[in-house]
């Protein structure tokens, strides 16, 4: 053992030095590291100045005057990491959550029938709809976004039973979701960044206001832009039961029982959380919140049927018309035009022009909903191509030539022929938001 001789004066000096050093370290942590930890965007840890553009409806049908206002918005924050420890997310005996959805919404009584299956240990139904956002305010009441009469931002919204939905999510996001109450709203991270809102901000919908109470990871919110309490579903216009999350004791028996309870002729998707990219209906399609982060957002208004009109200023900035081999004239988002051209040139050089039928090209950019009253098609952003539609209609498992599929999927497009509800003529470009 080593001998230690400590003098009282020296000990006092050491103690004082240590106290001062600790105080300095804590001060630096408070001002830097802890602030960075609270921000969901690691690259954004300070307040920023943003320019908000409000677009008035076009008076001539071709242009829309705009006004701008500058607002200082703090970066969105995430729930503190000191939340109480929750049990792990609800899963089945095989360690995964079962995602259940049908095209166009769940049949009447279906969710109750599934919950009654003996092997189902827990389940929750999630309502979902596209709703109209009219305005937003920061936590201090200052305006962030405004729209003009008849126009709105399209919002992909969920309504949930908070404790039941939270049981399927990981901590700490589960705590923010479980605490959701009527009049409140939880945003996903991508939505918070698009909206430039933090906790305490307000969203004004056609059906009334909600206040942001939490921000969660995109995955924990199923990629939705806004999640509200089920008690607010009716007033906000979130009417459709869209999907179920299920924890079960015997996956094979559960699948058989769900299939037996599905009406004849109804399309049914059954996928585990180890298979689904997003735990939501249409799970292979990139959620709208993330599309907005990459390609921008616009205001819209309905016209007739499933057709809509979107902000002409956004169209002018992002949509181009040009000519490419094999297809001829196309009208698409500027980002995908060189990719489409390269794919068509590749097929042409390989002597595979026969894989593309120009007379069955059904377009790229056109503003519309997927169906009347449903969400927006990615065609609205000019990010999707419909090819050889006459020979490969939606809802069939007909295949397209592998050379055509490879030419586009190798350039970032997903192929609708691989979707649970197939759309073999549909090719949709996706890109991950910057993190």
Q: Tell me the major beta sheet.
A: 6 strands, mixed, barrel
In total, how many domains does the architecture comprise? 2
Overall structural class, as computed from helix and strand content, comes to: alpha+beta
Determine Rg (CA atoms, Å). 26 Å
Spans of 5+ residues with little confidence (pLDDT < 50)? Answer: 1-84
Indicate the proportion of strand residues: 25-35%
Task: Indicate the percent of residues in helices.
Answer: 10-25%
What's the overall average pLDDT, rounded? 83
Spatial ordering of strands, largest sheet? 4-6-10-7-9-8
The first-to-last residue Cα distance is 53 Å
Identify the overall geometry: globular
* Count of discrete alpha- or pi-helical segments spanning 4 or more residues: 12
- Per DSSP E runs of 2 or more residues, the count of β-strands stands at 19
